[in-house]
Amino acid sequence: MRLLPVQEAVGMVLGHDMTEIIPGEHKKVAFKKGHIITEEEIPRFLNMGKEHIFIMEFNEGDLHENDAAIRMAKAAAGKGVTFSEPKEGKVSLLSKYPGLLKVNYRALDDINSVDDIMFATLHTNQLVEGNTVIAGTRIIPLVTKEEKIKSIERICSDKYPIVQVLPLQNKKVGIVTTGNEVFYKRIEDKFGPVIRSKFDKLGCTVEKQVFAKDDSEYIAASIKSLIEEGVELITVTGGMSVDPDDVTPLGIKKAGADIVSYGAPTLPGAMFLLSYINDIPVLGLPGCVMYNKITIFDLVIPRLLAGEKVTKNDIVKFGHGGMCLQCKECRYPNCSFGKGGLY
């Protein structure tokens, strides 16, 4: 690149996109990289505050910002990810469809440790809609050495993918609703409709809901009956606290479940239980899932639907960032809830 006064750049090729900002009106690219500058355009450049212009002149081994950003985006993009054309030197990565965003954040550290490079993403393990901007990358100067971009490509190749979106599976769901008060129809079930609504939004089908009294053997039998009918994920609602009549955890254990975690470092959601019977997740859901908009349910279920096996270590990591602020207007997932403890 060569720097020239704008008056001396007439007839030369612009080396990068030039942005025009008019407060209250627009911010847009006025002149794109490769534009041939004319004398008539000099006043506009000056009004934009551009008294000097970078003209394209490359040395051997140089790489322009646009080309560098495209190569980095292409190297990092995994399943379910596409990317935009460069704009002002930046390339955006976008989700092809709704799903669970996965970011290799350790590899991301390696990328951002290379001089001249930046690569920013949304937080890993969150749901994203289709055509959502999930990351962006560029180099800091207008030109960098190609060898630096090759080093980024090697990192991406060794630790591929850096960014991907996993589609959610349409699992068959079974619900066991516990509690004598509901079983004997003393009160109306309020938990089931909430769970159905949540799974509907995630693209899943609730195949069957059964009601169980506060008896661990009865709860275990209810869970087994749903498995026999072919469900692929079971939620057991209610009876998760420490009251004498709350026997749901024991019922889940008697059904043959391998308990991963009883308790989670999240609020709301502390009394959550995660277990598996073979490969079928069986979840004990505390009452907060019925009353609170966002809970541990919303952190764990998308990962299960994306085909992940959630571990005790995954649950432990929820503690840093596991406090929901109960905002008057919920902004989840654009908030801190469930987004700490990665390292």
Write up what this structure looks like:
The protein has 343 residues and is of the alpha+beta class. It has three domains: 2-55, Molybdopterin biosynthesis moea protein, domain 2, CATH 3.90.105.10; 62-166, Aldehyde Oxidoreductase, domain 3 (Alpha-Beta Complex); 172-319, Molybdenum Cofactor Biosythetic Enzyme, Chain A, CATH 3.40.980. Helix content is 27%, strand content 27%. The chain has eleven helices and 19 strands. The chain has helices spanning 42-47, 65-76, 105-112, 146-158, 180-183, 191-201, 216-228, 248-254, 288-291, 296-305, 312-316; strands at 2-5, 18-22, 26-31, 52-55, 62-64, 81-83, 91-95, 99-103, 117-121, 126-128, 133-139, 143-145, 163-166, 172-178, 205-212, 233-237, 258-262, 273-277, 280-285. The strands form six sheets. A six-stranded mixed sheet has the order 15-14-16-19-18-17, sandwiched between helices. Strands 6-7-11-9 form a four-stranded antiparallel sheet. It has a three-stranded antiparallel sheet with strand order 10-8-13, with helices on one face. α2 runs parallel beside α4 and α7 packs across α8 (248-254). The longest helix is centred in the middle third of the chain and has 13 residues, at 146-158.
Produce the secondary structure layout:
Layout: E1 2-5, E2 18-22, E3 26-31, H1 42-47, E4 52-55, E5 62-64, H2 65-76, E6 81-83, E7 91-95, E8 99-103, H3 105-112, E9 117-121, E10 126-128, E11 133-139, E12 143-145, H4 146-158, E13 163-166, E14 172-178, H5 180-183, H6 191-201, E15 205-212, H7 216-228, E16 233-237, H8 248-254, E17 258-262, E18 273-277, E19 280-285, H9 288-291, H10 296-305, H11 312-316
Parallel strand pairs: 14-15, 14-16, 16-19
Antiparallel strand pairs: 1-4, 2-3, 5-12, 6-7, 7-11, 8-10, 8-13, 9-11, 17-18, 18-19
Helix pairs in contact: 2-4, 7-8
